[in-house]
Each structure stands twice: as C-alpha cells, then as structure tokens.
Design brief:
It is a single chain. This protein folds into 2 domains: 92 residues, no CATH class; 53 residues, no CATH class. α1 runs antiparallel to α3 and α4 crosses α6. The two termini are 31 Å apart. By secondary structure, it is mainly alpha-helical. Helices cover 68% and strands 0% of the residues.
C-alpha cells in the first residue's frame, strides 16, 4: 500500500522529522501556490506577465467597464482588501495545520501504549518473533516501555545478533529525544 504524500500518518515510520518536514513543505507550497495564483489574476503586472503573448483580456476587476470607472486608489483598496482576506485564510489554514501537527505526538504515544500492552500480553516466543521482524526503532520503543522481565525474556528468545543490535539501540537515548 503506497502512502499519498498529502496524508498525515501517525505511525512511527512516518513521524520521522524529515517525513514531517516533507509533508509540511508540500502543504506550504500548495497553499502559497494557490495564494499566488488567486492574487496574480487580480494584479495587473503579474496578470500581464502570465498572459504575455496571448490576446486574452485582463479580468474585469483590473480593467473595469468604461461606464463604471473606479479611481486608481479605490481599485487598489479593493485589491488590498482581497489580498488581506486571502492572507487571513492562509493564516487560518496554517493555524489549523499546526494544531493538527501538535496532536501527532499524543496520538503516537497512545498507539505505542496500545502496542506495548499487546506485546506484554503475548507469549515470550511470539513477542520475540514479532519484535525481530518489525522496524528496529519501533521494537526498541516497545521494549523500553514493556515490563522489564517480559522484555528480557523476549530478547532472550531472539537471535543473538538481533538482540545485540536492539540492545545497542536501547542504550542510545539521543534518537528518542524530541527535536525542536
């Protein structure tokens, strides 16, 4: 199953800082592109640059009909109000996105807690087999939160190289510190 770049997943693999940055960058780029395109249609020098070479007339807001002439100042005020409205909309979207991203660590912690309970309830053989097959970083997170006796018994059932690798990762705490 391939992941779509615009979805926000809370599994540990997708929550690596570089993946979060990619999602934020994509959303920011799309939002800014939308904002630019919607503003560019109403700003004469940008609209002219986009339409260079074509004979398409400028939008009605830029060149009003002859009978309804607005002063240059009124037209600029209307454009400024439109731009301010779009900036406010962009800021609202950005605030909502920040709120959603702030909830990701909480959801990840809740899912990890559920996983730990599931691994604690397994037999040591099953836990060892499953922990050997999953991503090592996730296995380390689970083992660190499991009952120590159960975690030790599960590691004792693993292959020596796998248990040694997990032990090394468990001793390195810097990978699990949040980066801000």
């Amino acid at each position: 199953m391939s992941k779509k770049p615009w979805t926000i997943c809370i599994c540990p693999e997708c929550q690596k800082p570089e993946k979060r940055f990619q999602v934020l960058s994509l959303i920011a780029c799309l939002t800014l592109t939308f904002l630019f395109l919607s503003v560019s249609a109403s700003v004469p020098f940008i609209a002219g640059a986009q339409n260079s070479g074509s004979e398409t007339p400028a939008p009605a807001a830029v060149n009003p009909p002859a009978g309804n002439t607005l002063s240059e100042e009124e037209r600029l005020k209307a454009l400024q109000a439109d731009i301010d409205k779009k900036i406010t909309t962009y800021n609202d979207i950005l605030t909502r996105l920040e709120e959603l991203l702030s909830k990701v660590p909480e959801a990840e912690a809740a899912r990890l807690k559920t996983l730990v309970k599931a691994y604690d309830a397994m037999s040591t053989e099953d836990a060892a087999r499953n922990l050997s097959e999953i991503d090592e970083d996730l296995a380390v997170k689970i083992l660190l939160k499991m009952n120590s006796r159960k975690a030790g018994a599960a590691m004792g059932q693993m292959e020596v190289k796998k248990a040694a690798s997990l032990t090394e990762k468990m001793s390195t705490i810097t990978k699990f510190l949040p980066v801000k």
